[in-house]
Amino acid sequence: MIKFSINKTFFLQALNATKRAISSKNAIPILSSLKIEVNSQSLTLTGSNGQISIENTISTEENDAGLLITNSGSILLEANFFINIVSSLPDISLDFEEIEQHQIVLKSGKSEITLKGKDVEQYPRLQDVTTTKPLVLDTKLLKTIISETAFAASTQESRPILTGVHLTLTEHKEFKSVATDSHRMSQRKLTLDSATDNFDVVIPSRSLREFSAVFTDEIKTVEVFFSNSQILFRSENISFYARLLEGNYPDTDRLLVNNFETEAVFNTNALRYAMERAYLISNASQNGTVKLEISNNQITAHVNSPEVGKVNEELDTESLSGNDLTISFNPTYLIESLKALKSETVKIRFVSPIRPFTLTPGDNSENFIQLITPVRTN
Amino acid sequence: MIKFSINKTFFLQALNATKRAISSKNAIPILSSLKIEVNSQSLTLTGSNGQISIENTISTEENDAGLLITNSGSILLEANFFINIVSSLPDISLDFEEIEQHQIVLKSGKSEITLKGKDVEQYPRLQDVTTTKPLVLDTKLLKTIISETAFAASTQESRPILTGVHLTLTEHKEFKSVATDSHRMSQRKLTLDSATDNFDVVIPSRSLREFSAVFTDEIKTVEVFFSNSQILFRSENISFYARLLEGNYPDTDRLLVNNFETEAVFNTNALRYAMERAYLISNASQNGTVKLEISNNQITAHVNSPEVGKVNEELDTESLSGNDLTISFNPTYLIESLKALKSETVKIRFVSPIRPFTLTPGDNSENFIQLITPVRTN
Which segments constitute the DNA polymerase III beta sliding clamp C-terminal domain (chains A, B) (predicted)? Predict the structure, then answer.
């Protein structure tokens, strides 16, 4: 039966990271549990919601953890409840001891708390992913790519495949991340330094956002592995499994065109704030669109919500060239696109009032392109 | 028709303070409006939810406000919407101009936003309070007294009078604030420096908490006035009206007794954290109580929730004297009492397992006493 002592703060950090995979309202009740497994060298915390699973391993060799293992074993504990109890303990360290009938006793300072657990046999087995030939990525770069694309995925289950982000590796070096909800698209490309096996997978955008929350910037690199049904992101202490989406992702390359009629470069934040003002008024009516008018070398934004009021605003540009044009679109899409852009300026290229327009970083610093489909108005 | 310009940040501060009185889900729809009244010297913002009303006046003589009035008038605007629009404006200042048909135009930078308003005649009249012979209080002290007592008021409407805080002035100098929900009571007394008219009023605890949020610590003193149905708190710029509760407040003095059998002094925070641990376990069961056992010059806390687990904890005391005793109570009441205490230590006096126990600051620094009724167990 388990017996160990550990530093409370270190234990809580690992518990809170693992908790990100655990939902208290899961269709499978046992998944509200946290699994604790202890062997002679380490302690592993496991949480899962069926879509993502997190394993967090603390080694006895980790100095800050103060982990002293007296006895091995494994047990299930109600995750939220257990974590609240641990965070309330009075001392900087705690003793964890399993007693009869899947009960545990936590001792810290003068406090002694007994909790009921469950037999670890009740917990489902997580599918294994073979860990050979990893794709090694810089964690920060991978998280940037996720923040640049995952937001554009659909949040509606009518076409489940669009709730995912399409990650591919072609020619062993050409990495691409794409998401679209059929109204807008975001695509980021990257050429890897070293060649590895090609892949073509679709990962729920929500799982990727959880990955970004769990893998802090202190984790320099992440190893990525694939099985037929899962992707595994692994660091020294954390294994993060996400289930893949099944089905064929639509061909997004055909959406990208090279011709355009009008090109404007804006300060990213100034355009975003102008669109946020437009959104406040447009959102109050059913129409919900903003109209951009380009004429006489000047761009103005217009919103008219008969019930509420209207906006007219002249937009500053860094440069503007090409034909005059009037185009209407949902300002939310442009706001979210601009938030995803890290560059100071943004280049927007228009083809026609009924064709999608493209956004790229004004400094062309990244292989990053976004598309937004306009709304037809009369 | 209104026309003025103003500093955006200063205007927003006043708008957000006034908004605290405005609910978007009011039974009287017009109360979701903000009233703006402009005369030659100042601009007044008014918000009300029927229970509390706030008037915020900005003078042209206020340097930071940058208020320049061209034309007087008054108008109603949808409060939340208007405040969101103002906070989105691009420039540090804004021009506000009323045009035909109760519409206004906001100009800031290159942005021009037109909003629909309403005729000010639709707004209900706030009851007047005669402002002679004010009771002048230190704002910080009044807010401290509110935080020490208002939490103990009832949140249930079964006895409406108990949702209030009983404020009285007797013998022209003896100020007292009391609240009870019939399970616990909190009372704070204060002798005023100068004599004023006696009063006896009951104010909804929620209104007093809003007062504390609106009157920042920068406002040194507050003038207090009464009418038959309202209390008015007034500073240089803000008038805060709260409706009084009707009915007789129960006699709470009879609850206070001087005899006791057991007295213990604790470190306030250490006792609070121990009770928070106890609460985590007690709250998981229906029983929901913690048991204190005083024997052999030692105090231990016990919780037993058969479904979940149990707690045993030896409590450190600064001093302990009197008879042995076992008493059970809801730990939430003790946690909230201890949060209201600003002193480093707390003195708790027990009479018997079935009589309320009292809490006072360990250093006797304030005229502050709290009562908590125990729960009878077998």
Answer: 254-376
